[in-house]
Amino acid sequence: MASIKFNIISKNNPSNLNIRFYHGRNIDCNAPSNILIDPKLWSNKMQNLKPLVDKETKDDYQTKINTLKNNIVRSFNEDYANGKIINSKWLKSVINDFYNRPTGEDDYRIFLIPFIEEYIKETEHRINPKTGKKISFRTIQKYKTTLKQIQDFENHQKAKFKITDVNLSFHKTFTAYLKLELKYSNTMIEKIISQLKAFVKGAKEKGYDYSIEIESNKFTFRRDETIETYLNESEITTIFNLDFSDNERLDNTRDLFIIGLRTGLRISDLKRINQFLFSNNVVVISATEKTGATVKIPLHPQVKEILKKRNSKLPKIISEQKFNDYIKEICLEAGFTQKILGNKRNPETNRKEKGYYPKYKLVSSHICRRSFATNLYGKIDDRTIMKVTSHKSVKQFHKYIRISDTEYVNRLAEYWENENELSNSKPQLKVSN
C-alpha cells in the first residue's frame, strides 16, 4: 500500500518540508514539498504540527499538506496505470505541476515558444475532423512561420515569454514590432495575431494557464482593404481568343488558365486536374484540397471548346511559380496594360507595396477564384456560387467579390434601363368617359 510521509530533515529555520512517497519494495521517492516551516513546529512522529501551534496556523498548513498529498495520490494512480516510471524525478515533477512551476525554460506547459513547438509536433500527426485528412503541409508551414516571427520577437526583446504573458500589453508591443521594425502590412499582422490567438486557445483547451485578455475584442488588428484584381467576362474572352498555336508553352497555360477561371478552383486543386472526372457537361472534384468537399461544376462553353480542341486531353500540369509567370505573359499579350491600384511585392524589401501598376503584373493564380465568384455575383444566387467555391459562410464568400465602382454604376444604370423598358412595354389603360 502506498504511503506518504512529511518530514523535517534540517534544523534551519525555515526548513523545506520533505516528502517521502513509497509503495511496496520497488518504489521509494523523496522530494522537497516547497512548504516552508519552522522545524520547532513540526513533529515527524505525529505527521502534524505540534499541539502548541495555534489553530489558525495549523489549519492553514494542514490544508496545504492534505491538498498536495491528494494530488500525489491521484497522479500516481493515473501514471502508474499508464506505465510511467515512478521515482524521485517523477515525484518532483508532480509537485511542480501542483504549484504550476516550470521544470525548465523548455516546459511547454508554461512557456510560449516550447508550447508552439509542441503544438506543431502534435499537428503533424493530427487528423482534421472536418476533412478526415492529415493537416496539410501548407498549414504546418504557416504555423512554423508564425513561430519564427515570435522567436525573433523574443530575441529582439531579450525575453522568454510565458503563455500567460500573451495579453493586451504583449499585443501592443508585438504589433508595434511587426509594423515598425519589420514593416509588415496590416493584413500580414492580422494573420499573425489570429494564428497566435489560435495557439493560446490550444493551450487553454489543454488546461494550461493563459491570460483572459486574449479573448478581448481589442486583441486583433485591422486588415488593409483588399484590392486584389480580377478579370471580367470581356477580358476572359479576350484571353480565350488569343492564338498561341505557335507557342505550346503559352497555349497549354492559357487553356489551364481558362479552366481555372471558369471553375473557380484553387491552384492546389487545379494542379490535380488529371484526378478529376470530366464529362460532356460537368467536372466532378471528389475532394477539394483545402476543404475536402466534393464539388460538381457544370462545364462552361469555353472549357468544352478547350477539351474539343485537345481531343478530350487535359492541359499539362505546371508548377504554381511557372503558372504565375506565364499568365502574366498571357495577360500582357492580351493587352491588359492599363494601370490599376494593387499590391505588388518589392523584391528588395520582400514586402508588398500599394500603388498603381500595369494590370498584367498584378495577375496571379488566385485571380481564377476571385474572377469566377465576381463574374457570377448578382447573376445567380449566392448559395449556388458558394456550393461551387465551397465557401461555408456568406461573409467569407463576399470577401472574394471584386466589383469596381464603375461596374456598380453600370449595373445600376442597366437595371434602371430594364425597369424603364418593362414599364413602357405594359399596355396603357384608357380612361373611359
Q: What order do the helices and strands come in, and which of them pair?
A:
Layout: E1 3-7, E2 15-23, E3 27-37, E4 42-43, E5 48-49, H1 55-81, H2 88-98, H3 112-123, E6 127-128, E7 133-134, H4 137-157, H5 168-181, H6 186-205, H7 233-240, H8 248-263, H9 267-270, E8 277-278, E9 282-285, E10 295-298, H10 301-309, H11 320-333, E11 339-346, E12 351-358, H12 367-376, H13 382-389, H14 394-398, H15 405-425
Antiparallel strand pairs: 1-2, 2-3, 4-5, 6-7, 8-9, 9-10, 11-12
Helix pairs in contact: 1-2, 3-4, 3-6, 8-11, 8-12
Pfam families: Phage_int_SAM_5 (PF13102), Phage_integrase (PF00589)
InterPro entries: CB, DNA_brk_join_enz, Integrase-like_cat_sf, Integrase_catalytic, Integrase_recombinase_N, SAM-like_dom, Tyrosine_recombinase_XerCD
Organism: Gaetbulibacter jejuensis
Structure overview:
The protein has 433 residues and is of the alpha+beta class. The chain has three domains: 96 residues, no CATH class; 104 residues, DNA polymerase, domain 1, CATH 1.10.150; 178 residues, hpI Integrase, Chain A (Orthogonal Bundle). The chain is 46% helix and 14% strand. The protein is built from 15 helices and twelve strands. The strands form five sheets. Strands 1-2-3 form a three-stranded antiparallel sheet. It has a three-stranded antiparallel sheet with strand order 8-9-10. The longest helix has 27 residues. The radius of gyration is 33 Å and the shape is elongated. The model has no long low-confidence stretch (mean pLDDT 85).
